[in-house]
Amino acid sequence: MINKNEYPLVSIGIPTYNRNYGIKRTLDSIWEQQYPNIEVIISDNCSTDNTQEVIQSFCENHPQISYYRQKSNIGMIPNFMFTLRKAQGKYFMWVADDDKLEPGIIEKYVEFLESHPDYSLVSGEIKYWYANKDTHFYERGFTFEQGSSWIRAAGYYFKVVHGGMIHGMMKRSLTENITLRNVIGNDYHFIANLAYLGKIKNFDFVGYNKNFGGTSRSFKQYAKAMGDSEFAGNFPHLKMACDAFLEVMQNSKIFLAMPAVPKLTLAVSSFTGIFLGYYAKIFPLTIGGKIKRLIKRPFN
């Protein structure tokens, strides 16, 4: 258990843009945590609505908030990285500006990480919900506790579909040499780096509620927001597989020191994991669903 007088500082990064209606829900879920040692870094990407006024009203009663308003729109990924680099806490989380945390989840995460120093990331299940729809699904099963660093990273690439683990709690010191890139699937690669640096725990209870909307609702929209190519929007999983290979072979400082043969093995495994994870599992179901709907469609 945590010594009540020695709660480690937890930093929460909230990159935001034109989300005056959603960020209140996000901030309320943070205050409901009642965790006593917290800082909230909000980076407003030059919103054109009244997001600034909404946030400033929160700042009046919550000195834990550090609010930054960018002079111009710096892009989505630089805005995410801005909040991370401003953080001072022992632990760090990204919370999107239209999502919310489960009550009491921060203390549960901290307790685990404080007693398990060989873990780099923890998260509860990710519950995805659709705005204005009574439908949801869960992302779970991302516990990688193998002793081998490269097996953990490869295992994550074989498993990941939505990338919600990016909203888990991570050891901030381990992120100093990791960066989000302006490519689709950037969250895949960020977490793969963390998996290489330490074990990952995904609890069997919900920790995060994610709105499956905004830039998350289509790959074409997401790729455009990233500044990625049209090819990435049309063939996202092939592009992510190629980027995973490059992440291991040349882009990441974390994998740089790996011997040549293990590095190539991990790079090929990472490509294969994403490629097969979609084209051998999800893609056939997607095509089958389209065919089924076509057959059921009444003739005009």
Give short descriptive properties of this protein.
single chain, 300 residues, Spore Coat Polysaccharide Biosynthesis Protein SpsA, Chain A, 10 helices
Structural class: alpha/beta
Largest sheet: 9 strands, mixed
Number of helices: 10
Mean pLDDT: 90
Instruction: Report the order of strands and helices.
Output: EHEHEHEEHEEHEHEHHHH
The number of domains is 2
Q: Indicate the radius of gyration in whole angstroms.
A: 20 Å
Beta strands, count:
9
Specify the helix fraction band.
40-55%
Strand content: 15-25%
Based on Cα principal axes, name the global outline. globular
**Contiguous runs where pLDDT drops below 50 for at least 5 residues:** 283-296
**Cα-to-Cα separation, first versus last residue:** 66 Å
In short:
With 300 residues, the protein is of the alpha/beta class.
Secondary structure layout:
Layout: E1 10-16, H1 23-31, E2 38-44, H2 51-59, E3 65-69, H3 76-86, E4 91-94, E5 100-101, H4 105-115, E6 119-129, E7 136-139, H5 149-159, E8 169-171, H6 186-197, E9 199-211, H7 219-226, H8 230-234, H9 236-251, H10 260-296
Parallel strand pairs: 1-2, 1-4, 2-3, 6-9
Antiparallel strand pairs: 4-8, 5-9, 6-7, 6-8
